[in-house]
Each structure stands twice: as C-alpha cells, then as structure tokens.
Write a structure and sequence with these properties.
Structural class: mainly beta
CATH architecture: Beta Barrel
Strand order of the largest sheet: 1-2-3-4-5-6-7-8-9-10-11-12-13-14-15-16
Number of helices: 2
Order of helices and strands: HEEEEEEEHEEEEEEEEE
CATH class: Mainly Beta
C-alpha cells in the first residue's frame, strides 16, 4: 500500500511538472480581415480589352496563434495561421533560439528559411512583389513544406539554411505521415505513373548576406534538389540568386538576379532580374515602383526564349490598425506565353485586430 501511495504521489508530481512546463510560455491570438477590389484584363482571354467578368470584390480573414516562452534555457516560439475557411492550418513555424549556437526551426509553408527568402520578395515595395496579380515566380525548386531551417551570424555574415528531406509534389504533411504515395516498380496504374514522374529527392539550399556599410546589404544563395529517385539519370534541379538592398533616410532600393532550372522533363529554366525603389513619404504613406524581367528558356514546344516583363506601381497608407493598399501591375508575355498580357489593379483594405 505504501509503495502504491509513493507511486501515486510521484505520478501526480510528474503530471504537475509537465503541466507547469507546458504553460510556461504565453499564447496570443491575433487576426486580420481584408477586403479587395480587383480589376483585371488579359489579351489572351475571350474578354480581351475588358475587365475580368465576375464579382470583383474579394474577402479574406486570417487568424493567427503565437506563443513564446523559455524551455530549458532556450527561447522557443511557435506561430500558426488558419486558412480562410478555418478548416485547417495554412502555415506554421516552430523555432528554438540557442543564442550563440544559432536558431533552428521547423517550417511549414511560412517561407522563413533558405533561398526562397531572396527572390523578388527581397525587393522593397509598398505592398506586394512585382509578380503580384498575374506574374510568374522566379524560384521555387526547394519548397517550404515540412522543412528544417537554421540561422546564425559568423563574423558579420548571416547564414540562412534550409533542408527538405524530400521535395515530392504535395502539401503539408501531418505527424505520423509521409508526403505523396508510394509508386510500385512497374507503375501499373495511372496514379503510380504520375507519382513516378513527379517524385523529387532531398533539397538543400542557403542564403548568405553581409552588411559592409550602414544601410547596404548584399547577399547570395544556392539550392539543389536531387533528381527523380524513381527514374535513373534524372537531372538535379538547381537555383541561384544574388541581391543588394540599400536604405538611406526614407528611401529604399533593391536589385536581384537569379536563375532556376527544374528537373521536370520538358520544363524550361528561368533567368530573372529586377529592381525597385520605395519611399516613405511620411509615417503613414509609402509608395514604390518595381520592374522585373523573367526569361523562360525554350523547350521542345517553343522555338525561342520568351521574356515576361513585369512593372508594378504600389502605395500603402496605414493609420493605426487599418491599412489601404494599391497595386497597379502589368505583365507582358505572362507565364512565358508570347503576347499574353495581363493588367491588374487591386485596392485592398486591411483591418488588424
């Protein structure tokens, strides 16, 4: 009986300690509501020269949970965001800051690590990237679903690493599961054949950045995703980038260049460069101009390379928890399709809670 009492008391004490550790941090909930009005037309559509049909008013809501605390002497933080339908997680990020040893994290679609942090999103703008509203992405051979990341600074050089154990086509992976499905050796079904054609291997990528003088940041990155591990001889996917940003007073400017090559059979490579200039007119109003070119390498179905041109004029006015944003973007040869021209004007109202 005494032994049973001791066991019971020990179990209770352990439970209390576990509960205490679990509630050591703080969890906060925040949200935003966004209403947009979008007018768009495309020279390649049946409504060429006219605004896109349908209701131009859009609505989005975000609900985010953020927690932080001290776990065994390390600063731990976690945040997760729900999708618009509130039916599942749209993104999440868990990080552990180990001080001089660096920060490690598990990223699920926030894009916090690796080379994809240095595509056209590196350009300073008042609202969105120059590709917003119909343009094409420049990188994207590494993915950001269920990846491990690491950040640290050594002698003034910042390191941002990402590792993806398997970049098979697919979304987020829950605990106890794996991405995709397993294809058999013979690929006897259409599903198996599709799986074998899309399977990619492990991906490792990084970005290095350095600030030689106040306001100036220069950076470069490289990434490689192993070829299809179901088909012998499939090439690896690669991507490289370089950039510079400079801020002085109320003005910021940036330039970037990158190259991306897919390992999917018949897919084209992409060579991109662009720049932007942004200005904070006052503490509430910001404006920007950005331009970008993305050259699609010719494929077996094209006779020559095609260049997509993007220009973006943007503005943002913020007062307290309310923001009004404007994006006026044009995309010529969108998606690498000759004479497919898209023009989009978007007005956005965001309320933060």
């Amino acid at each position: 009986m005494n032994n049973l009492k001791i066991i019971g008391v020990s179990a209770l004490a352990g439970s209390l300690m576990a509960f205490s550790s679990a509630t050591a941090g703080e969890m906060a909930v925040s949200g935003t509501a966004e209403v947009t009005f979008t007018s768009s037309d495309s020279s390649a559509s049946a409504l060429a020269g006219r605004a896109t049909s349908g209701n131009p008013i859009g609505f989005k809501n975000n609900l985010a949970f953020k927690g932080s605390g001290d776990v065994n002497g390390y600063a731990v933080s976690f945040n997760t965001a729900m999708n618009d339908a509130m039916s599942g997680i749209s993104s999440s990020l868990l990080t552990v800051d180990m001080g001089a040893m660096g920060l490690v994290g598990m990223d699920n679609a926030t894009g916090s690590f690796g080379i994809d942090t240095a595509d056209d999103s590196i350009l300073p703008t008042a609202y969105e990237e120059p590709s917003h509203g119909g343009g094409s992405g420049s990188l994207g051979q590494s993915g950001s679903n269920n990846v491990f990341g690491y950040k640290n600074t050594f002698s003034g050089v910042s390191v941002n690493l990402e590792y993806n154990a398997d970049y098979t086509t697919g979304g987020q992976v829950g605990d106890g599961a794996t991405s995709g499905v397993t294809a058999d050796d013979a690929a006897t079904t259409a599903l198996n054949e599709a799986t074998e054609s899309s399977v990619k291997g492990a991906s490792t990528n990084f970005v290095l950045s350095y600030a030689p003088i106040d306001g100036l940041v220069v950076g470069a990155g490289h990434g490689k995703t192993d070829g299809n591990n179901q088909i012998e001889g499939t090439r690896d996917a690669t991507e490289m980038t370089g950039y510079a940003t400079y801020a002085v007073g109320s003005i910021s400017a940036g330039y970037f260049i990158n190259e991306s090559q897919s390992n999917t059979t018949g897919a084209s490579g992409r060579n991109t460069d662009g720049y932007s200039v942004a200005m904070a007119v006052n503490e509430n109003l910001s404006v920007s101009y950005a331009t970008r070119e993305i050259e699609f390498d010719k494929t077996a179905h094209a006779t020559a390379n095609v260049t997509e041109d993007n220009t973006a004029i943007m503005a943002s006015y913020t007062m307290g928890g309310a923001s009004i944003r404007l994006a006026n973007n044009e995309h010529d040869n969108a998606g690498g399709t000759t004479n497919k021209n898209v023009k989009t004007t978007e007005i956005s109202l965001v309320l933060a809670f």
